[in-house]
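User: Fold this one for me? It's Prokaryotic-type class I peptide chain release factors domain-containing protein.
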Amino acid sequence: PNDLKIDRFRSTGPGGQSVNTTDSAIRITHIPTRMVVTCQDEKSQHKNKDKALKILRARLLDMAERGKHEELALKRKSQVGTGDRSERIRTYNFPQNRITDHRIGLNLHNLEEALEGNLNDLVTNLSEKLKTGSEI
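Assistant: Here's what I get for Prokaryotic-type class I peptide chain release factors domain-containing protein.
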């Protein structure tokens, strides 16, 4: 109620003298979003106001729902990524016995040890990169 601006005015269009003499049309503005709803369907100002409030409520709920959906989609996209080859993290090259971590530009030539669980060199270099504040 405090963030609504309600204007009353004369309807337009067909209807003759009754349209021209009574302020039966309603314009409701939701001030925070600047969303405007106008209703002049009914002869009664009260019915038009109720109808305009219902329309405004539905539009605001729809806008909030869309905002939540977009926020969720952005979070999902940031977690999943595009699946493009440019998003690769690490390459295991068996013929050359090499591991390449593309995030930090590190090449290690101890593939067998890494596959056995010895990832100390990789983890150390990655944590140093994080400590320096560099973007990975």
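One thing worth pointing out: Residues 45-80 form the longest helix (36 residues).
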